[in-house]
Amino acid sequence: MATVELTNDVFEKTVTSPGITLVDFWADWCGPCKAFAPIYDAASEQHSDVTFAKVDTEAEQALAGAAGITSIPTLMAFRDGVLVFSQPGALPAPALEQVITAVKELDMDVVHAEIAKQRGASESTE
């Protein structure tokens, strides 16, 4: 599966869709981004059940700012609309594979229960 370019118009709809979405925040002038691109593209070919997306931080500065991107490349992983991983830096292929496997193996019932617990704790301290 080829990677999809995300813009501000489609970002939220894409990352909140059911399933797994990986998002690579990058820029054309970024050396580590260029080194990571073929690794990311190869993984997209191996995992047709995962949406691989890219955000050009130069073209989408407002989106990158809203996502809190301070260093590129930054990889984010969303599962069923929940941000479950975010890390700056280019990953080698084995590390990217570990991230994908870990996201696939998440028990989302546990994740949602933890989110609800955290929300309850923050509401009780207000």
UniProtKB/TrEMBL annotation:
Highest taxon in the source lineage: Bacteria
Task: Supply the NCBIfam families for this chain.
Answer: thioredoxin
UniProt-listed PROSITE patterns: THIOREDOXIN_1, THIOREDOXIN_2
Q: Signal peptide location in the record?
A: none
Please give the family membership noted in the entry. Answer: Belongs to the thioredoxin family.
Q: Which InterPro entries match?
A: Thioredoxin (IPR005746), Thioredoxin-like_sf (IPR036249), Thioredoxin_CS (IPR017937), Thioredoxin_domain (IPR013766)
Q: Which GO terms describe its molecular function?
A: protein-disulfide reductase activity
Give the Thioredoxin domain ranges.
1-105
Task: Look up the record and report any one GO term of the cellular component aspect.
Answer: cytosol
What single Pfam family name could you report for this chain, choosing any that match?
Answer: Thioredoxin
Q: Which UniProt keywords apply?
A: Disulfide bond, Electron transport, Redox-active center, Transport
Record's keyword annotation contains Cytoplasm: no
Protein name as annotated: Thioredoxin
SUPFAM superfamilies recorded: Thioredoxin-like (SSF52833)
